[in-house]
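Quick start: read one record
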Amino acid sequence: MFTGIIEAVAKVRQVSPGSLWLDVSFASELKKGQSVACNGVCLTVVKIDRKGFQVKLLEETKRLTSFSQLNKNSRVNVERAMKVGDRFDGHIVLAHSEGVAEIVDVVEERVCLKVPKKLMRYMILKGIVILDGIALTLTKVDEKKSLIEVAIIPHTWENTNLSVLKAGDRMNVETDLVGKWIEKLAC
């Protein structure tokens, strides 16, 4: 489980069809087999060196994520899984991408995105959505147009990949787990 609070921004060292190498400040603290959320997708560390780590990308992962737009030197939001007993500062995030949203507009204080229609039922004004692993507050929801807007505080802007994204870029989307459980239990 993750919190949606980005721990660091990694730099892509190498992209190949089945794997991704990321350079990150906490590489020396990682272990093989450890889970790391990379742009909001839970991946397993398979190799480590002093500068970074490698993860494998399954076809299913590539199909459901924005990883196809990553290149050498791309910025990737990373967060290690929570440890039992750690302070819980964020939200309940599984890091299981449910689809990909396209950025319509991005400015320092907000991002507007077109979201897959099937995910719009979980978009609630002042609720949360997880975009590239960042838990963000929904400030506008237009169900008819499948558009959402999220607020960006300066700290998030400066410490995530948001500052380098632009209109047309894609972001991984995870919806609020609590809303999905309520829906399941209500049926």
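The mean pLDDT is 94.
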